[in-house]
Design a protein that fits this description.
Number of domains: 1
Bound molecules: zinc ion
Largest sheet: 5 strands, mixed
Shape: elongated
Strand content: 35-45%
Number of strands: 7
Structural class: mainly beta
Protein backbone atom coordinates (compact mmCIF):
# COMPACT_ATOMS: atom_id res chain seq x y z
CA UNK A 1 0.00 0.00 0.00
CA UNK A 2 1.33 3.45 -0.81
CA UNK A 3 1.68 5.98 1.96
CA UNK A 4 0.55 9.44 0.99
CA UNK A 5 1.15 12.50 3.12
CA UNK A 6 -0.75 15.78 2.78
CA UNK A 7 2.01 18.40 2.61
CA UNK A 8 -0.46 21.13 3.53
CA UNK A 9 -2.02 19.48 6.60
CA UNK A 10 0.99 17.35 7.68
CA UNK A 11 -1.08 14.19 8.13
CA UNK A 12 -1.28 10.87 6.34
CA UNK A 13 -4.01 10.25 3.78
CA UNK A 14 -6.50 7.49 4.58
CA UNK A 15 -8.15 5.06 2.13
CA UNK A 16 -11.60 6.32 1.14
CA UNK A 17 -12.74 3.78 -1.44
CA UNK A 18 -11.12 0.67 -2.88
CA UNK A 19 -11.69 -0.31 -6.49
CA UNK A 20 -12.57 2.92 -8.18
CA UNK A 21 -12.44 2.91 -11.96
CA UNK A 22 -9.83 5.29 -13.31
CA UNK A 23 -11.02 6.14 -16.81
CA UNK A 24 -8.22 7.35 -19.04
CA UNK A 25 -9.64 9.45 -21.85
CA UNK A 26 -8.08 10.33 -25.15
CA UNK A 27 -6.10 13.56 -25.09
CA UNK A 28 -8.30 15.38 -27.57
CA UNK A 29 -11.78 14.29 -26.52
CA UNK A 30 -13.73 12.77 -23.66
CA UNK A 31 -14.02 9.22 -25.00
CA UNK A 32 -12.66 6.53 -22.63
CA UNK A 33 -9.50 4.93 -23.96
CA UNK A 34 -8.50 2.66 -21.05
CA UNK A 35 -9.79 1.74 -17.59
CA UNK A 36 -7.65 0.91 -14.57
CA UNK A 37 -8.55 -0.45 -11.16
CA UNK A 38 -7.39 2.05 -8.56
CA UNK A 39 -7.96 3.28 -5.00
CA UNK A 40 -9.22 6.62 -3.76
CA UNK A 41 -7.43 8.26 -0.82
CA UNK A 42 -8.42 11.32 1.18
CA UNK A 43 -6.72 13.76 3.53
CA UNK A 44 -8.69 13.51 6.81
CA UNK A 45 -8.22 17.24 7.45
CA UNK A 46 -8.71 19.14 4.15
CA UNK A 47 -10.48 16.25 2.32
CA UNK A 48 -8.27 16.57 -0.76
CA UNK A 49 -8.56 13.34 -2.75
CA UNK A 50 -5.95 11.46 -4.75
CA UNK A 51 -6.14 8.34 -6.89
CA UNK A 52 -3.37 5.79 -6.45
CA UNK A 53 -2.66 2.09 -6.65
CA UNK A 54 -3.38 1.62 -10.33
CA UNK A 55 -1.48 -1.16 -12.01
CA UNK A 56 0.66 -0.91 -15.10
CA UNK A 57 -1.95 -2.62 -17.22
CA UNK A 58 -5.51 -1.45 -17.86
CA UNK A 59 -8.37 -3.85 -17.22
CA UNK A 60 -10.20 -2.63 -20.33
CA UNK A 61 -9.25 -0.90 -23.58
CA UNK A 62 -11.47 0.83 -26.11
CA UNK A 63 -10.61 -1.37 -29.09
CA UNK A 64 -11.47 -4.69 -27.45
CA UNK A 65 -13.89 -4.09 -24.55
CA UNK A 66 -17.35 -2.61 -23.98
CA UNK A 67 -16.18 0.46 -22.08
CA UNK A 68 -19.62 1.56 -20.87
CA UNK A 69 -20.28 -1.92 -19.46
CA UNK A 70 -16.98 -1.92 -17.56
CA UNK A 71 -17.54 1.65 -16.32
CA UNK A 72 -21.00 0.65 -15.12
CA UNK A 73 -19.55 -2.01 -12.84
CA UNK A 74 -17.86 0.60 -10.65
CA UNK A 75 -19.51 2.42 -7.76
CA UNK A 76 -17.34 5.43 -8.60
CA UNK A 77 -15.21 6.39 -11.57
CA UNK A 78 -12.71 9.19 -11.95
CA UNK A 79 -11.56 10.54 -15.30
CA UNK A 80 -8.01 11.42 -16.25
CA UNK A 81 -6.72 12.67 -19.58
CA UNK A 82 -4.17 10.49 -21.32
CA UNK A 83 -1.71 9.18 -18.71
CA UNK A 84 1.98 9.58 -19.32
CA UNK A 85 3.89 6.44 -20.15
CA UNK A 86 5.69 4.76 -17.28
CA UNK A 87 9.37 4.15 -17.98
CA UNK A 88 9.95 0.69 -19.42
CA UNK A 89 6.26 0.07 -20.05
CA UNK A 90 5.01 -0.18 -23.61
CA UNK A 91 1.29 -0.37 -23.14
ZN1 LIG B 1 -4.83 17.98 3.78
Amino acid sequence: MPRIICAKCEVEFTPKLNEVGLVETFRDDERPAKIYDADLWECPVCHFEVVSGLGLHPIAEHYKDDMQKVIGQYEKTIRCRELRKVSGYRG
